[in-house]
C-alpha cells in the first residue's frame, strides 16, 4: 500500500514536469486577454499587466491598431528584433507561423 502511494506521487510529479518541459520547448503561443498590456524589452524579456480603467484609457490614446501579423526574433546574443512583414510573402509566412 505504501509503495502504491509513492508510485502515484511520483507519477503525478513526472506528469507535471513533462508538461512544464513541453511548454518550454514547444514555444506555445497564447492570445492576450482583453485589456491586457504586454511589454517586450530589447533583450527579449517580457512583462504583462492588467491596468485599471483609467490607466487603460490613457494608454489607448497612445495606441495604434495592428494592421497585419507581426514577427519578432531574438539573435544569438539575446537582442530582440522586429521583422518587417509589410510584403505579402512576409505576411503569409507570419500568418502560417501563427497558426
Written account of the structure:
Helix content is 46%, strand content 16%. It has 99 residues and is an alpha+beta fold. The strands form two sheets. A two-stranded antiparallel ribbon has the order 1-2. A two-stranded antiparallel ribbon has the order 3-4. 0% of the residues are buried. Residues 21-26 have low confidence and may be disordered.
Summarize the structure.
By secondary structure, the chain is an alpha+beta fold.
How is the secondary structure organized here?
Layout: H1 2-26, E1 37-40, E2 46-49, H2 53-62, E3 71-74, E4 80-83, H3 88-98
Antiparallel strand pairs: 1-2, 3-4
Proportion of strand residues: 15-25%
Strand order of the largest sheet: 1-2
Largest sheet: 2 strands, antiparallel
The N- to C-terminal Cα distance equals 47 Å
Uncertain spans:
21-26
Order of helices and strands: HEEHEEH
Q: Roughly what is the average pLDDT, rounded to an integer?
A: 79
Main structural class: alpha+beta
Helix content: 40-55%
The strand count comes to: 4
Shape: globular
Radius of gyration from the alpha-carbon trace, in angstroms: 20 Å
Count of DSSP-assigned helices: 3
Which key terms come to mind for this protein?
99 residues, alpha+beta, two-stranded antiparallel sheet, 3 helices, 46% helix
Amino acid at each position: 500500500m505504501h509503495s502504491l502511494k509513492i508510485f502515484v506521487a511520483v507519477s503525478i510529479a513526472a506528469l507535471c514536469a513533462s508538461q512544464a518541459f513541453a511548454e518550454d520547448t514547444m514555444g506555445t503561443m497564447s492570445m492576450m486577454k482583453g485589456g491586457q498590456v504586454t511589454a517586450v524589452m530589447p533583450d527579449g524579456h517580457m512583462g504583462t499587466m492588467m491596468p485599471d480603467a483609467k490607466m487603460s484609457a490613457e494608454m489607448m490614446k497612445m495606441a495604434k491598431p495592428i494592421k497585419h501579423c507581426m514577427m519578432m526574433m531574438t539573435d544569438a546574443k539575446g537582442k530582440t528584433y522586429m521583422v518587417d512583414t509589410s510584403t505579402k510573402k512576409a505576411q503569409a509566412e507570419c500568418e502560417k507561423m501563427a497558426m
